[in-house]
């Protein structure tokens, strides 16, 4: 597990997604991130490349800068395109947000895991403290708030500043929608680009770093509802055939499992088969779900089909495989998305 806080470095904006040089900065408690970044042959044109949700200046960009390795950062326009970059081996790995401490799981990432489960695997995770700022081009002739009609940001970021927006831009009447439209976009830095292109009337909720990148003014800082606002990212790499490297002795693993129960099955029954006792030594740490495609459109129950994302803590990977063997007959599909040290 890697920990980070907001990175103060700034980089120049690029008209097109271009690789960004990266230098090493120790941050991981283990000293390095997984060996997938170091095992590529030096002759490979894709050695040490990492895709992240851009454009530059996004919180994903700041998190990617904090990783302890030497590689090239490549911005991607959407979370799905980060996965596509890894699947096609355009980059060695990718960094995607999976959960925020205040707004919950990131649905775009979960949906991408459903789509690309056979092609990618999770190899590590990173925690990044997020501070949100209000950026825009203020009207010099009046209070900047009076001319704003649109707020742009990534959906989870908008949720993280709800109290600020409700207070600063209240609805015209109790039952009316907000007078200022809250418009979700693919990333916080793309929100900054949009605010830059519509001065006086639009603002972005994003990192303060975007002010220099996109010629904006910081109108308010640290507007997140909670000061401990933290986003968890996962590092994904191509899914290679065969087992992964053995964990260090006595290490506790966090194992990511994705499964879709059959319409007649019950997620409670499936989880009960974990047998949470001292002999099993497997603990459920997180559980999330997303709607999934009906397995049999002719069956009414199948339209309520969900895919579940389960995070398990265990010192024995063998126990997880034993559980999978017991439950796979209850599932349409089941995947171990990956594991990392807890």
Automatic annotation (TrEMBL):
GO MF, any single term: prephenate dehydratase activity
Keywords: Amino-acid biosynthesis, Aromatic amino acid biosynthesis, Lyase, Phenylalanine biosynthesis
Compositional bias (Basic and acidic residues): 9-23
Enzyme nomenclature, EC number: 4.2.1.51
Residues of the Prephenate dehydratase domain: 49-238
Gene Ontology CC: one annotated term: cytoplasm
Gene (name only): PHA2
GO biological process: L-phenylalanine biosynthetic process
Originating organism: Synchytrium endobioticum
This protein's pathway: Amino-acid biosynthesis; L-phenylalanine biosynthesis; phenylpyruvate from prephenate: step 1/1
Annotated InterPro entries: Chor_mutase/pphenate_deHydtase, Preph_deHydtase, Preph_deHydtase_CS
Region Disordered, residue ranges: 1-55
Lineage of origin: Eukaryota, Fungi, Fungi incertae sedis, Chytridiomycota, Chytridiomycota incertae sedis
First-level EC class: lyase
Identification of the protein by name: prephenate dehydratase
PROSITE patterns the UniProt entry points to: PREPHENATE_DEHYDR_1, PREPHENATE_DEHYDR_3
């Amino acid at each position: 597990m890697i920990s980070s806080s907001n990175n103060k470095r700034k980089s120049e904006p690029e008209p097109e997604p271009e690789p960004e040089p990266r230098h090493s900065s120790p941050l991981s408690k283990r000293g390095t991130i997984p060996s997938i970044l170091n095992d590529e042959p030096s002759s490979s044109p894709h050695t040490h490349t990492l895709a992240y949700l851009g454009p530059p200046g996004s919180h994903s960009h700041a998190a990617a800068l904090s990783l302890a390795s030497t590689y090239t950062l490549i911005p991607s326009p959407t979370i799905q395109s980060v996965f596509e970059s890894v699947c096609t081996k355009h980059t060695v790995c990718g960094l995607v947000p999976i959960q925020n401490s205040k707004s919950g799981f990131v649905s775009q990432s979960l949906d991408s895991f459903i789509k690309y489960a056979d092609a990618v695997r999770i190899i590590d995770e990173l925690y990044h403290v997020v501070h949100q700022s209000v950026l825009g081009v203020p009207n010099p002739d009046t209070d900047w708030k009076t001319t704003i009609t649109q707020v742009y940001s990534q959906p989870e970021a908008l949720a993280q500043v709800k109290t600020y927006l409700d207070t600063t831009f209240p609805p015209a009447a109790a039952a009316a929608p907000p007078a200022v439209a809250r418009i979700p976009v693919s990333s916080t830095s793309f929100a900054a680009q949009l605010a830059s292109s519509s001065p006086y009337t639009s603002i972005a909720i994003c990192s303060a770093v975007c002010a220099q990148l996109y010629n904006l003014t910081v109108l308010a800082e640290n507007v997140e509802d909670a000061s401990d606002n933290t986003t968890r990212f996962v590092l994904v790499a191509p899914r290679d055939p065969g087992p992964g490297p053995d964990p260090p002795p006595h290490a506790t693993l966090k194992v990511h499992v994705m499964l879709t129960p059959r319409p007649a099955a019950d997620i409670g029954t499936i989880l009960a088969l974990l047998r949470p006792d001292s002999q099993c030594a497997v603990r459920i740490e997180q559980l999330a779900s997303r709607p999934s495609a009906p397995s049999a459109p002719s069956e009414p129950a199948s339209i309520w089909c969900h895919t579940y994302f389960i995070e398990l803590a265990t010192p024995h990977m063998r126990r997880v495989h034993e559980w999978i063997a017991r439950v796979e007959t209850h599932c349409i599909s089941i995947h171990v998305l990956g594991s990392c040290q807890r």
